[in-house]
Structures are given as C-alpha cells and as structure tokens.
C-alpha cells in the first residue's frame, strides 16, 4: 500500500461509504473508495482527502469477502454496545 498526499482527487470518482440509515452529508468522517485504471483501488477518509491509501483489486476483493463472512466482526463488537 502507498500514499499520495499531493493530489487528493487523483481524477477519480470517489464512492462514499455511508452507514445504513445515514446520509452522505451527515457528521462523518466517511471512508471513500475509488477504482482506478487497471488493478488500483484507492481509499481515503473524507476529512483528510490528501492521505490516500492504494491497494490492489485482488486485495480489496479479499477484504470485502472477509467483511461479508464476518471475519472482522470482533473488531466492532464492543463499539456496537
């Protein structure tokens, strides 16, 4: 993974992850994801768009499958109480 703080938009269409029942203009900050040319996937926080983390599509897909399978639920169990 790498970071690029020189160009926060990178000419990409950013998708904002909004919690269920929330609005994209709510309090945030939100996680934003963009898919670049080829294999690149970019992530950033809406309140710090200059810090961009880059990963590959293969790693992103593995992460999404893990979330869907509940592999990370233990990280949020206490936060949901």
UniProtKB/TrEMBL annotation:
Residue ranges constituting the DUF397 domain according to the UniProt record: 29-68
Pfam families from the UniProt entry: DUF397
Region (Disordered): 1-28
This protein's name: DUF397 domain-containing protein
Organism from which the protein derives: Streptomyces silvensis
């Amino acid at each position: 993974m790498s970071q690029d703080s020189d160009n926060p938009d990178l000419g990409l269409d950013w998708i904002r992850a909004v919690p269920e029942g929330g609005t994209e203009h709510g309090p945030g900050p939100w996680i934003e994801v963009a898919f670049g040319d080829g294999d690149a996937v970019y992530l950033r926080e809406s309140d710090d768009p200059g810090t961009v983390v880059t990963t590959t599509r293969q790693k992103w897909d593995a992460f999404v499958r893990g979330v869907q399978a509940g592999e990370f639920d233990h990280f949020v169990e206490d936060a949901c109480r």
